[in-house]
Amino acid sequence: MILLTLFTIGCGHLTKIFIKTNIKFSHNPLLQLILVVFLAFWGILAISPTDRTQWLLENILLVLVILVLCITYRKYKLSNLSYLLIFVFLCLHTYAAHYTYQGTPIDQWLKSVIHTRRSYFDRFVHMMFGLLWFYPIRELLTRITGLRMFWSLITTISFILSLGAVFEIIEMLVAILAGQTGQDYMGLQGDVFDSEKDMALSLIGAIISSFILAIIFRKRKYHSLHLAKGMAKQKLNPNTNK
């Protein structure tokens, strides 16, 4: 019983660490660790990338994302869980930028195993975009708009789909302006529906995250109602536990 109680308290403490917002950076060791690990990871993979030009193109958006997060941090601090999810996505992107999205070691291994010419890591990252960015974007939208539950999930899905479309437009413009390097950056690999498939995978990732959050919200609501009923019953019958 004592171990169970300690475990419950520990889980509750960890939940507060990950979910709580408005923590000052100087008082947030987890966020400090996330930042240090990412900078170290990025710095190592910035050394001798496979294609320096493509690496620079891939890092433009990454730098913009980090700048936006830093500039808005004082006014819109996200939870550590949001920053952790963003960290995972940026690590995936940094890894792909080093090798190029068409030449990652994972893709080389897959090609030898399933005998395909297609590189699938870029598709995986597009799906992870919807899956990993869903929670941070929803957290920000609910804080700004006040949306809750169902509409917050639907709005976030729509927002991620819109971001995916904007990114594909940016890729198209880069391909037009940068010539062959831009075409390599797009990574069509002979698939005329590559952009549509990328957006579809981002949408699928967002929908999966929305279902996970919906289940969590439902369970949390059930436990809250159950706890409230128990407390009300105890107030009505204060001698039942004696």
From TrEMBL:
Key words of the record: Membrane, Transmembrane, Transmembrane helix
Transmembrane segments: 30-49, 55-74, 81-100, 120-137, 149-179, 199-217
Entry keyword Secreted: no
InterPro entries: YjdF-like
UniProt entry tagged with the keyword Membrane: yes
Protein's name according to its UniProt entry: DUF2238 domain-containing protein
